[in-house]
Design brief:
Strand content: 25-35%
Order of helices and strands: EEHEEEHH
Number of strands: 5
Largest sheet: 5 strands, antiparallel
Oligomer: single chain
Radius of gyration: 15 Å
Number of helices: 3
Distance between the termini: 43 Å
Helix content: 40-55%
Strand order of the largest sheet: 2-1-3-4-5
């Protein structure tokens, strides 16, 4: 069974990385209080991606409810981070890119 993957993504600068080993503590430290940082969690048990940001008013992580913002973060993660797992890459592509590319190809064929 595939493990959970956790990524830190900075949307405004287009940079991110997977949190593994020693990077977990420094990654979480940069997440706390940073409004530009997003935490992306792949949960293999439900085969889904969860996106969080830091809610300074409640001093805790909060799930992203805005579908457009979630899409922007995940597309950015796909474009800007090379070392994401194949399954995470596949979920993002299938959810946000596949249909658009098919429609574009269909339009070019006509």
């Amino acid at each position: 069974m595939e493990q959970s993957n956790v990524y830190m993504y900075y949307k405004n600068v287009g940079m991110g990385y997977e949190l593994i080993g020693d990077s977990i503590l420094s990654g979480m430290d940069s997440f706390y209080g940073n409004k530009d940082a997003y935490l992306v969690l792949y949960c293999p048990h439900v085969d889904n991606l969860f996106v969080y940001h830091w809610d300074n008013s409640q001093k805790r992580r909060k799930g992203i409810d805005n579908p457009l913002l979630k899409e922007q973060v995940l597309i950015g993660l796909l474009k800007d981070v090379d070392d994401i797992s194949a399954r995470v890459r596949e979920i993002i592509f299938d959810t946000y890119c596949k249909e658009e590319l098919l429609l574009e190809a269909e339009g070019n064929a006509n």
